[in-house]
Design goal:
single chain; 4-stranded antiparallel sheet; binds iron/sulfur cluster; elongated; 29% strand; Alpha-Beta Plaits; 2 domains; 3 helices; alpha+beta
Length: 146
């Protein structure tokens, strides 16, 4: 199974070879979706972990023991149809294919099931039509695949 989490690195933990140790010690593949880490500073990394459920649990426990903060509920991406003009820019930066613009209409389609919540699309939109909603049940705008 796959799990998407946000890791918060304290300053003293940024040098750790986290992805290597996850692979070797827990048989977990870690795909880095976004990272903002500088030497001798704290940082944040959004990763998609793939492996067995038991291995994932053990790996997450180990990460917390290393002093990393884990956010397992990074929220949901939502598209505001009132702002979106179907320009397609966001689909060009989406690594998972969750955002697609296809011929002949070139209308933007968002597949929430494929979304990794990497947030790369948010700053790409010139119309601020994309938002990360931390509590999706309270949001009023969304667009799904037809
Ligand atoms: S957050 Fe945006 S760019 Fe990232 S996978 Fe989801 S839709 Fe694509
Ligand atoms: S970049 Fe913004 S306006 Fe353009 S298709 Fe994506 S959400 Fe719509």
């Amino acid at each position: 199974m796959k799990r998407r989490i946000t890791l918060h690195f304290p300053r003293e933990a940024v040098h750790q070879p986290i992805t290597y140790r996850l692979a070797v010690e827990f048989d977990i593949a870690a795909k880095i979706l976004r990272a903002q880490i500088a030497p001798n500073q704290s940082g944040t990394m959004v990763v998609e972990l793939s492996g067995d459920i038991d291995d994932l649990k053990a790996a997450e426990q180990w990460l917390e023991q290393q002093g990393l903060g884990l956010n397992r509920a990074p929220g949901e991406i939502q598209i505001d149809p009132e702002r979106c003009v179907d320009c397609g820019i966001c689909s060009s930066v989406c690594p998972s294919g969750a955002l697609r613009s296809t011929a002949p209409t070139w209308q933007l389609h968002f597949d929430a099931q494929r979304c990794l919540v990497c947030e790369q699309c948010i700053p790409s939109c010139p119309f601020q039509a994309i938002a990360l909603v931390l509590d999706p049940s309270s949001a009023s705008v969304a667009r799904s695949l037809p």
